Amino acid sequence: TEAGETIRATLFPGDGIGPEIAESVKQVFKVAGVPIEWEEHYVGTEVDPRTESFLTWESLESVRRNKVGLKGPMATPIGKGHRSLNLTLRKELGLYANVRPCNSLPGYKTRYDDVNLVTIRENTEGEYSGLEHQVVRGVVESLKIITRQASLRVAEYAFHYAKTNGRERVSAIHKANIMRKTDGLFLKCCREVAEKYPEIIYEEVIIDNCCMTLVKNPGTFDVLVMPNLYGDIISDLCAGLIGGLGLTPSCNIGEGGICLAEAVHGSAPDISGKNLANPTALMLSAVMMLRHLQFNDQAERIHNAILQTIAEGKYRTADLGGKSSTSDYTKAVCDHI
Ligand code: NAD
Known about the structure:
Helix content: 25-40%
Radius of gyration: 20 Å
Bound molecules: nicotinamide-adenine-dinucleotide
Mean pLDDT: 94
Distance between the termini: 22 Å
Shape: globular
Strand content: 15-25%
Largest sheet: 10 strands, mixed
């Protein structure tokens, strides 16, 4: 990005609390003077035959064109004849890695105060693809596909991330002692990539041991890279270490350099429309998007304002034990900026 340039980015406000917290992000960006023009796309009310989902073709094209976007939570409508919204995005945009930083927030007390790790999850294959069928009655089969191409791609991303973000170590999480072929191949690919990054320490940790260490002493981890299903589980465990869903951002990396940031949480139907949601997770996701665009000054200012607001403790939403509404908390963050 060059100075003075305005960037177009796609915004999916999403469902439930999505539009409320997306509004918070828009306000914060305005106050911080972020030169971004949003292209807003909503989830449709009927299935678009071109995508076989409630997401329109135009909205996917918008992300492909802009290569950068922010996504609120999407509630997948129940019924047949359409694909899950998140799965559609993942497949259509080739979102191959999910990056989720977990940092203890100063001033917000949890059991740990030294969590500073990043999980990087392979996002396209493994058990998570749901390739399952019944062989005969009482016997089912699930296919766990691991390919060299997808493993190398996510490993490459993890090491590149570590190097460009001043991280020292990459841990590959696996169960290759049992899943010798599949996790074995995943590890082999990680080792190959590790050789190209001699400045980054590389280690391999068996997933059960990883879980134990994470809850005992999460401060020992730096960057973790892992196959899809392990990433699904471990990244939620890590979110829990720092205070839960209202706080954890993430970012999906896709083919051709696409970056689609999103909060980890869902549409929270129990509190939607009540001005109660915590917009922090989506704001921090937006900060990840800004860092991706190299808008580092604005990213830093917004990040610091969020940290200060939470640390002060005067304005906090209900999920963090406070009494503030979404809009009061957002205003406090804006005032700090
Ligand atoms: P959820 O994350 O929406 O809610 C779980 C609990 O956390 C609720 O009590 C909710 O009030 C609370 N919560 C979540 N985000 C919060 C926030 N920002 N501030 C304060 N409290 C918050 O999970 P769910 O209820 O299992 O799912 C609801 C819907 O969201 C479902 O349709 C599901 O498919 C969808 N979902 C979408 C995504 C996504 O788009 N990435 C992720 C998860 C769930």
